[in-house]
Amino acid sequence: MESAENNFPGEDTSESLEAEVASLRQQVWTLLVLLLVVSGTLSIFLMRQVTYARSDLAAMKAQVTPFMQEYQKELPGLDQFQQKMNEYGRAHPDFVPLLTKYNAVIPANSAAPKK
Length: 115
Known about the structure:
This protein is mostly helical. Helices cover 73% and strands 0% of the residues.
């Protein structure tokens, strides 16, 4: 048998293949550098956003703290009001749908009014 050559018309020579490999290698390095730059930029942006969020949180805490302290002082009065509403709901079953509407605690032993 005759030895068949693998050189088909239009096939690249070894020098052009080496040139293509070198070109691909250069593209890979370029993409890696670009990826490094983009990821670094994103990291810096996210660090700045975290800094802004922390400063906003500190400002909000300063504004919200007096309201939270006032709420904590008024909490026992709110609990008493809810207990009185539950007692009234036990005594007056017609009031139970109103408690249900506003997600108040519904007395367990009172039945809802029949329509």
